[in-house]
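Why Dioxygenase? Reviewers of the renewal asked for a concrete example.
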Amino acid sequence: MKINKLTESFNKTEKMPVLFLGHGSPMNAIEENEFVREFRGIGKILPKPNAILCISAHWETRGTLVTAMQNPSTIHDFRGFPDALFNVQYPAPGSPELVSDVKSTVTKTNIGSDEKWGLDHGAWSVIKHLYPNADIPVVQLSLDYYQKPQYHYELAQELKSLRERGVLIIGSGNMVHNLRMVEWKRLNDTFGFDWALEVNEKIKQFIFNDDHQALINFSKQGKPFQLAIPTPEHYLPMLYALALKEKNDTVSFFNDKPVGGSLTMTSLKIDQM
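Here is what the prediction returned.
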């Protein structure tokens, strides 16, 4: 285990909210729909953060890394979409201060620095709706794909103090995410298969009951969960958000709808009572 001396780069602030955003299709970056309108609405009521730490489903690595460059690039990590989407740039700066804080706060593992990745679409496609001026520094924290859900939850718990230093922590993924079963011709239709709706409701109930252990052990929850979460990368960012919940925090849901049959856009906001 690594032992670090805590060095705080940001001054103490009121405790920031935490978000988990169901990001869905990359097209949400440029389309006008109910989901992006809700993202914009959330952005208008959030306190302005010193920086954003984003855990995206789309950055899996060996070990845990943070983006450490001054000016992260906008990564178009997809294909088969229109040129208008590839033309989108989100030139938010990086944050050496936040990188330092993450490294000094986390003791569970050594956090490595990455100078190549940038901001993937799990980050910029939703953050651009919250802060369209790209004037808030953004750092991404990767998902170590060799680690089990319990590890990710415990690592996230070590980030709690960042909430009191003006850092908005965002998990970006999807509660239910099975691309192999998506009805692509109906991707813009708000409907879900029975198993997708069942899992979405059970996840929300576990959250309401603060039963985080059941969520950590999602693979033991039966066949519907296996269909809803065939791989963990879109689910784990939600665990990062929930691990940051304090006893006196409340959870509210928004964008709570399925799309394409096997995806849910359900998002949540954790905030003080």
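The radius of gyration is 17 Å. This is the kind of structural detail the renewal will allow us to pursue systematically.
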